[in-house]
Amino acid sequence: xxxxxDTVSQLLNMAGHGIYVWTAVLVTLALVAWLIINPLxxxxxxFKEIAQEVSREQLRQHANRxxx
Amino acid sequence: xxxxxxxxxGSPRWFYESTSRWLPWLGTLTFVLLAVGLVWGLAxxxxxxxQGNSFRIIYLHVPASFLALAGYFLMATAxxxxxxxxxxxxxxxxxxxxxxxxxxxxxxLFTGAVWGKPTWGSYWVWDARVTSMLILLFLYMGVLALQxxxxxxxxxxxxxxxxALVGTVNIPIIYKSVDWWFxxxxxxxxxxxxxxxxxxxxFQPLLxxxxxxxxxxxxxxxxxxxxxxxxxxxxxxxxxxLVKQSTDKSLGxxx
Amino acid sequence: xxxxxxxxxxxxxxxxxxxxxxGEVASPLIFFIMAxxxxxxxxxxDSELLKNIAPGIIWVMALLAxxxxxxxxxxxxxxxxxxxxxxxxxQLLVMxxxxxxxxxxxxxxxxxxxxxxxxxxxxxxxTAGYLPMMAGLAVGTGCLSLLAALGAALTxxxxxxxxxxxxxxxxxxxxxxxxxxxxxQYSIQGLAWGGPLAVLGAMLAIAIALCPLAIASVLRLxxxx
Lengths: 68, 255, 225
Fold this sequence. Notes:
The complex is a heterotrimer.
Chain A: H1 8-13, H2 18-67
Chain B: H1 4-9, H2 12-44, H3 58-85, H4 88-120, H5 128-147, H6 153-185, H7 200-232, H8 237-254
Chain C: H1 7-20, H2 22-42, H3 47-70, H4 72-80, H5 82-88, H6 94-107, H7 109-122, H8 130-155, H9 161-188, H10 194-224
Helix pairs in contact in C: 1-6, 2-3, 2-7, 3-7, 3-8, 3-9, 6-8, 6-10, 7-8, 8-9, 8-10, 9-10
């Protein structure tokens, strides 16, 4: 098993097929990354939302207690 | 027989907490497998005698196709478990598997099209496997559309589960039909679906990529399900505690 | 209890109801014939070319015409509450379902089948293709009606259900059109057309066995909730 290409430019070019292979690679990596990053971002947003809800409820409880 | 373990698995909290423990490891494994497989396949595997370097796309196309199909069966099974045992977690898995599978099906079609241009001269070809994959994408889109069409989440879940099951029954029928249809119309000179009998040097990185993709699917699915759990259970004590702990931690980091 | 409890009654009921709105029933048929006219206008009137694609065109048009009429399968019964009555009554729900689907086929699939020679004429279908085309359509439209009913059941409670119905049902139609079109094409090419027809028959058998069960459970789900 050995490295198939002599130079980096050969690696990119892949005997003329480079554009096809690298397009496929880039699109795949982009989608794979997005499929993992998207839920992580959503989780962060949900955490923020829940934290806001909790603090809003606490404020309301405070206000209720003080008005009594 | 003691089925407690099965019912315990249906608890969203148990799922969230146990996946929190080992998900980072699975994520690392995924990254390692995909990185090794990709580098191996793109740079170290020998090129194909007939197709030259464009054959390297196989390291992306085949894993994506496998997962697209396996993902559909997983989605339908999750739906079935939800229908039979009325397990909410199972419905959440089904719901998250749908967009994931649809994206993977699109990826399989895209990489296949990009592979097709240098190999057979055109981006699209109505051969049996490509056509079946396209129909699979339509099946996914139907389930996705149905999920969000109903006001009541409950009804939406059950309806999607039934549709997913109907689709599952249909997938072998569709594959067989399209295969038969293609052999009927196949131009005699070119054989598109000839599976290359592969040299081990080319096959090993493919195995690594397939494994890597399976792990990636698991990670992506589990991440989505965790978000879904947090959303559904946002009013419960354990979720609130979780959020409180993380905000305390981040406040502590600021101070 | 007799196993055909209610089937004939519901068949008769639906046929009577459809009879009162006869104009609606004619629309899929008129669509079928008119849309087939689009093909020579849009593609080519050359009969050499047309005769190659004629079976396929006729099948696509039949498919679209069935989808057009699918929406109204359960809609009116859902809106006036009779669907709920059917669901909560003690008889098997598959009976009203089968009755309705049969009525739908009798008023959509069967007219399409009988009208197909006209289209064959318009699209230069070779003579050998006429009988197999009709046989294939007769059996295949049965499958189309059953699958359309499934889509209709899933979308009956939705506002804009029509398009979603189409999206859901189209992938399921694909095997039917493959073998339906092949029936006529085989005959035109001089091969034995009993083969594809038998596969169509098998699909119809599976559909008759399984679809009503799925439709019944979906109706219970979407109507009562």
